Amino acid sequence: MTPASSNPEPLLDRGTAAEPLPWFVPLGALLLYYLRFGYHYATSDQGEILPFLFHRLDPSLLANDWFVQTQVADFSIRTYFVMLLEGLSLVMPVWTGVLLGYIAAWLALATAVYRIAQTLTLDRVAAVATVVLVLVLTPQWTLGGNDLVTSILVPSMAAWALALWGVVFFLRSRLRLAALLLGIATCLQMLVGLQIAGLLGVLLLLDLRDPSMRARRWREVLIFSGIYLACALPALGPLVYQQATSASVGHRPTLFYILAAFRNPHHYLFLSFSPRSMLRFGMVLAGGLAALWLLQKRGRLHRADFVKRVLTLTGLFGTLAFFLTEITPVLFVAKLQLFKYTVFAKLLLVGMLCGAGSLLLPTRVHAAIDGLLERRWLLLIAVLLAWSLTLTSTLAFDGLLRAKAGPLTQSNTPEGSIAAWARTKTPRDALFAVPPSWSGFRSQAQRALVVDFKAFPFQDAQMFVWFERLYDLAPLDLPERGGPDLMARLDSAFVAMRPADRQLLVTRYAVDFLVLPDTAASLQYLGYEKRFEAGAWWVWHRPETDETTNRGNGVSEASTGLE
Fold first, then answer.
1. What is the DSSP letter of 76?
2. What element of type H or E holds 352?
3. What is the value of pTM for the model shown?
4. Residues 412-444: pLDDT tens digits?
């Protein structure tokens, strides 16, 4: 009897289980992904990771940056992931360690997707197709804007790699190893590890209905949950303590508004999901369910109960999230981001589609494709040659694919040019005020910012401070709910700030450098001097004075001033 189902089907065909991983599949899929999306560094969500890492490696960097100091002062959901990168950075440059981590996470994810699809369909052709469709052709075809892979290394990628391998071992009845991997995944990115572990735990509990196996099932539940909690406790312990001791009473706007409605409603609130994402996921859901029915009817689906239960639970969790965020807002439920379950559901649904598609292929065609996939070494050599040509075209100064490598072209943008100038021409303790959408500036310049939109402290007390700083930097009428245009509106508010508000910003935070477009009003009235120009942007510098001004970079809780 398998740990997740009373289905008497064999857990995994012995010949299939013993088959070596076809490495041309993940390497080939990664090549396709790179050709489509490229690779990026020190931008977007890495603005929450790299500055913290730079400060740990060199405490003189970003020592007066408010966001970095919030990460240093208390445990955060990024702490263990940054510590992992720190270990790599002790023996190699940071960019090298991040790149190697990205490749390792991507390949681990691809191989786990392959094994899961292979386990469910026992079909090599379907498994290969699933890897390509899930990771390359259907990015973010989910609810909530999440997915397994991105074009930059983020904690969720590493966590998903471990969590999906945990699913692989769960399907093989190796519960101890599954729980171990899920516990480590929780330390790297709490929501991914916690959600998948909770899902598998519920599946184990569902099998308690069989009286003849109840004693064994209870033993499996205790073993799985005990090992998981022991491995996840280093992250869950501090985070649970933070939640238990946080207090948000009396603040306006509320934490729910800041986290779920204002900053990223497309991650939390169903009615903020774009029609495009709903349509895409709806197509995958409809096609996947039809494929599930066909595979079951033909007797070609293994672990059918596992698939059906996961999809049913995903629907139940999504319904719960809808009612407890849109109808009756509950902050704790919003923080769980239960719509993340659609990431795993999409994997299973696409696996069903690929299994059905492989089943419907003419026998001769299927045999030909399967025979080609048997030639693993030939295909691996072909993929490696393709990678060689791709890297040559990328690294050449005028290479056709140079634009795919973000780190090579960052300096071509105004943000990148100003960041490079700041990193080499300004004091290490300089404080900048830049447009809120410049998510890569802190990482690329390695200089402190008043605030930016992307780098978000998930500690409750500091969320209020983040919001207050953002409002000081870009005062605008608060929307009922944020959306895709919010960052552009914040940038416009920053540029169009009234002189009195800009004076208050400069004085309150002791800003050394302001970055504004050349169409903005001159800052000479504040005593600032123009120091650098990139494209349509100017950098204004405040000359040194004898005044002692508090930079306002403490990490203590503050009122938003908007009550």
1. -
2. helix 341-360
3. 0.92
4. 899 999 999 999 999 999 999 999 999 999 999
Rounded distance between C-alpha atoms, residue 65 and residue 88, angstroms:
24
Q: Which two tokens stand for residue 509?
A: 């935070």
Mean pLDDT of the chain: 90
Q: Under a CB-based contact definition with an 8 Å cutoff, are residues 515 and 433 in contact?
A: yes
Alpha helix positions (H), 209-297: 214-245, 255-256, 265-268, 275-297
- Antiparallel, parallel or unpaired: β 537-541 and 529-534: antiparallel
Classify residue 426 by its DSSP letter: S
Take residue 157 and report the two structure tokens written for it: 């990628």
Identify the band that residue 9 occupies on the pLDDT scale cut at 50, 70 and 90: very low
Tokens coding 558: 């503050």
Between helices 50-57 and 94-121, what is the axis angle to 10°?
A: 130
Cα–Cα distance measured from residue 159 to residue 336, given in angstroms and rounded to the nearest whole number: 15
Residues 331/255, Cβ–Cβ less than 8 Å: yes
Residues paired with residue 18 on neighbouring β-strands, in sequence order: none
What separation in angstroms does the CA of 20 have from each of 24, 358, 391? 11, 21, 27
- Residue 540: its H or E element: strand 537-541
My answer on whether omega of the bond before 427 falls inside 30° of 0, hence cis, is: no
Closest Cα to residue 295, out of 308, 310, 313, 280? 308
SS3 523: coil
Contacts (Cβ under 8 Å, ≥6 apart) of 84: 101, 158, 188
**In this structure, are residues 126 and 117 in contact, taking their beta carbons and an 8 Å threshold?**
yes
Residue reference for tokens 């910003």: 505
Q: Which band of pLDDT confidence, cut at 50, 70 and 90, is reported for residue 215?
A: confident
Residues 6+ apart with CB under 8 A from 1: 8, 207, 210, 213, 216
Pair 143, 284: CB distance under 8 Å? no
Q: What is the mean pLDDT of residues 173-188?
A: 97
C-beta atoms surrounding 316 within 10 Å: 13
436 HSE (CA, 13 A, CB side) = 25
Q: Dihedral (C-alpha) 37, 41, 43, 46: value to the nearest 10 degrees?
A: 110
